[in-house]
Design brief:
mainly alpha, single chain
Length: 70
């Protein structure tokens, strides 16, 4: 069973960035994380656990970094 789903993480990261922006705080690493989760949503991974973000990194690297567990 998925834990915290990617689409919920994306929503929460948006809230964090909106709040930080309101206080004039740059959060570049959070913005990058949000882009990775946005990619998950775009490629149909929205209901996977947030740990599945590794799949986006694998696609970007053109490598399978983690062997599929069955």
């Amino acid at each position: 069973q998925p834990g915290f789903k990617a689409h919920m993480m994306y929503k929460d990261l948006g809230i964090v960035l909106d709040t930080a922006r309101a206080y004039g705080m740059p959060l570049p690493a959070t913005a990058i994380a949000m882009q990775l989760f946005e990619a998950m949503l775009q490629i149909g991974m929205r209901d996977l656990d947030n740990s599945a973000v590794i799949g986006v990194l694998e696609i970007l690297a053109g490598e399978q970094l983690i062997e599929e567990m069955t």
